[in-house]
What does this fold into?
Amino acid sequence: MPGTILLGIDVESASDDSLGYAEYATQMYHQLEIPVTYYVTGRVLEMHGPVFAAIGNDPLIDLQCHTYDHLLLKTVFMDLPAGVSGHDDKPQFLKRGAALEEINADLARCRRLWQAVLGRQPVGLTGPWGYYRGLQDRPDILEMLHGHGFRYLRTFARNERDCQPVPLEWQPFFYEPQGFGDMLELLVHDYQDDFYWRMFARPGPSDTYEAHLRTVAQRAAEANLVWSACSHDHGCATREGFESKRKWLRHFITYAKDLGLRFISADQYYREALAAKEAGLGDGA
It folds into this structure.
């Protein structure tokens, strides 16, 4: 098998962008016949409950959690490479993580909302913004997330500078040393979306995101790697707004499928990895 792609979408805008993505992107994923995981904030679920309740029954779309209020689980400190302009145009940027009490209240609210709207609890969680090393250095947060029922995470989404890209060679792992052997970190590899590629890669006028994605897909296929890929619902309120994402997403998905890479949901990958771990086949990831 030449590699696996976990396509995860941060549905976080809590606006018509989220509603548009639910419609236009879901149609596209059905046309392409690939499973995808939507990591939805509680605010989105609260705002567009009936729409996402219907999507929750879709066999191709796996709905998981992105906190209620896009709350950072951990502080991000970006030490930007030379020539990269960050969120405030300074060479370093700090965004504070929430206190444990805030995280606990946010996730408790998410659980109540998931039960009310979808009739179930989320087991997957994306940490807003993402963090270097995921939560390997925060067993206190891992303990809280485990207590809330989360079993797979997408929190390792930045490199050693708290920037991007995240190397594809850093593969999913269980939080065994921290005492949570059934909790899997999926990471977010490479760049978190096309706009982050433009920000961090500083492409030339003839460079395209499609060409970059082809290169990453080739590496994943050749080395039989897991690629946890990411995009967002930003700017997708209308079909015209979605078009720019649709263009590169279709190209990426079609090219990767032609290489033989398989697309599976985060939930399916977690179950496979846990079964392999329990069978004694390495760490299962």
